[in-house]
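Example 9 (inverse folding). The structure is encoded as follows.
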């Protein structure tokens, strides 16, 4: 069977090919670049705990070797500390000689901070070792054609090459050629924030901790500075700049570095080694459509964000986590309902739109334009809390995505019960026992394209496997799991937050809760699993043949993308296939791409 074509070999494209390979789906990655990463220590990525675990499951060795997890987060305002949040390093590692899990410690899970080139290199090395992945450097796509059986992509070169696949995913960044060939608009806001950034080696008073410093007391400090540690004594420091200010000269940046280090180190600038510098501009944009029949968008090709703590690459990895199992299921079962792939756009686009909406609402207040609310007593403290939560993946600016209104949500039933995890939200990473007797984290069983069925059975953690694997409700549940319409794995846990004994949780392949039941209810469990895979394709409405989601793709624009700033579409033609007719998309040659979008630097 033909592979999936992935356009773009950044972290998102490389992660997608590995996630598909883990589910026995071959892919061809068309890389416009040379196949190597340029070291840029000042360009880094922050991944929340679940996405850090994802890239580690994909075989990215640099996560442990070249990334660091912060031990704490500090917030300061002027010369006073306002918050000190200890972070949980228990991410399957070892603390004080014992295995620890997120939630075992008091603080939130520590995010991973890693240079983007190191992340991409680790993913590329893993992809190069995989038999199901073909990496093709120096391949710029200029034509895409699709029909009812697959997609063809043409890459430039002396001879020109055509590639054929079942589907094509554009992971080719902010200036996405795939998006332009589709004729998909990319509205939003330009220059939401500007930052000067430096990577340097020095010693700061908060070893291993990240710092958010608002309105520092020294002269010309600016509105906000962040300092985030990296391995080997490196720090990334960001200075918030006026959105429409002058260019930052090298001398001016060195001055900022010296003043900032002196301000944090009792008036004396400590020795430092400047490694890398840059200035980057944050844009907020949201593609109007993420799917056109067999062609999909992911990562920066579908969305740009990055202000007030939101993390673009982290959201791109969430696109991968959401899309990979759905695309793999369709690849293995071509008769799958269109609802399954449609749900990728409706779930992920709504989640990103929510983050953009929250950022748009917070920015006027946080950046001094919030009117009376910005001057109320305690307002500064509330602002620090909001920003801290955004950076740590909590609150309105950073909450993990949930899909309660997904097209894949099971219908209510008599046996459904609530647990502490809302329907559609990511499940807690509890300890689980597999039928073979191994005890692991729940997150370790994700990424295999199968459902997880979790039985809450207090005491199983200390029982011998031979006593519980054939006792009580286990035989009945095992029979029900074997009869599900999707591959599924049966797991057992001592306890799950808010779940009574003998509760059964159905977990999607990407770790989101589909439903929880008050016991073993085979018919209801089967119906819920059928909903998760998109329902019965024979019952699908055949009138919708263009691959659009039933959800209005423009509904989230006003809520999340801000003012429309869109200059695309000139010099392009797009004719999408409908109802089985062959569709062809061709981009006219242009000497220069005038799109005013810069890649997110962090």
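The amino acid assigned to each position is listed next.
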């Amino acid at each position: 069977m033909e592979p999936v074509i992935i356009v773009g070999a950044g972290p998102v494209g490389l992660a997608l090919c590995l996630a598909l390979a883990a589910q026995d789906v071959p892919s061809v990655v068309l890389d416009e670049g040379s196949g190597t990463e340029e070291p840029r220590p000042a360009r880094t990525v922050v991944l929340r705990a679940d996405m850090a675990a994802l890239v580690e499951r994909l075989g990215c060795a640099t996560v442990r070797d070249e990334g660091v997890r912060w031990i704490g987060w500090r917030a300061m305002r002027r010369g006073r500390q306002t918050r000190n949040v200890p972070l949980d390093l228990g991410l399957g590692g070892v603390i004080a000689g014992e295995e620890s899990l997120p939630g075992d410690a008091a603080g939130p899970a520590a995010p991973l901070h890693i240079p983007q080139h190191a992340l991409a290199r680790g993913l590329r090395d893993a992809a190069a070792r995989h038999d199901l992945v073909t990496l093709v450097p120096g391949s710029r796509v200029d034509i895409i054609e699709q029909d009812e059986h697959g997609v063809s992509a043409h890459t430039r070169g002396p001879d020109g090459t055509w590639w054929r696949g079942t589907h094509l995913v554009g992971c080719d960044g902010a200036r996405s050629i795939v998006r332009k060939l589709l004729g998909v608009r990319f509205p939003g806001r330009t220059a939401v924030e500007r930052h000067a950034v430096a990577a340097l080696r020095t010693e700061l008073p908060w070893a291993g901790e990240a710092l958010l410093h608002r309105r520092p007391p020294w002269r010309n400090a600016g509105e906000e500075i962040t300092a985030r540690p990296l391995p080997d004594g490196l720090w990334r420091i960001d200075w918030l700049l006026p959105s429409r200010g002058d260019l930052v000269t090298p001398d001016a940046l060195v001055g900022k570095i010296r003043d900032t280090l002196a301000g944090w180190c009792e008036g004396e600038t400590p020795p430092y080694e400047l490694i890398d510098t840059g200035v980057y501009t944050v844009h907020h944009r949201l593609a109007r459509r993420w799917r056109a029949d067999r062609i999909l968008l992911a990562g920066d090709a579908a969305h740009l964000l990055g202000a007030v703590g939101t993390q673009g690459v982290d959201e791109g990895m969430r696109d991968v986590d959401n899309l990979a199992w759905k695309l793999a299921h369709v690849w293995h079962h071509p008769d799958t309902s269109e609802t399954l792939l449609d749900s990728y756009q409706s779930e992920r686009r709504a989640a990103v739109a929510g983050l953009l909406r929250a950022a748009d609402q917070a920015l006027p207040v946080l950046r001094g334009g919030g009117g009376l609310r910005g001057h109320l007593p305690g307002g500064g403290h509330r602002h620090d809390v909001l920003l801290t939560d955004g950076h740590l993946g909590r609150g309105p600016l950073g909450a993990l995505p949930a899909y309660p209104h997904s097209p894949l949500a099971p219908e209510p039933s008599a046996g459904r019960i609530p647990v502490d995890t809302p329907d559609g939200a990511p499940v807690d990473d509890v300890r689980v026992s597999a039928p073979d007797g191994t005890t692991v984290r729940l997150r370790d069983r994700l990424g295999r394209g199968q459902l997880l069925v979790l039985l809450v059975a207090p005491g199983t953690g200390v029982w011998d496997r031979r006593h519980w694997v054939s006792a009580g409700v286990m035989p009945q549940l095992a029979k029900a799991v074997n009869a599900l319409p999707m591959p599924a794995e049966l797991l057992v846990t001592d306890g799950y937050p808010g779940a009574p004994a003998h509760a059964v949780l159905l977990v999607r392949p990407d770790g989101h809760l589909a439903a929880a039941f008050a016991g073993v209810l085979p018919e209801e469990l089967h119906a819920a699993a059928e909903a998760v895979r998109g329902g019965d394709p024979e019952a699908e409405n055949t009138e919708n043949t263009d691959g659009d989601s039933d959800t209005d793709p423009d509904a989230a624009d006003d809520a999340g993308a801000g003012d429309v700033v869109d200059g695309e579409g000139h010099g392009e033609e797009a004719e999408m296939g409908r109802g089985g007719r062959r569709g062809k998309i061709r981009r006219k040659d242009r000497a220069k791409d005038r799109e005013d979008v810069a890649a997110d630097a962090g």
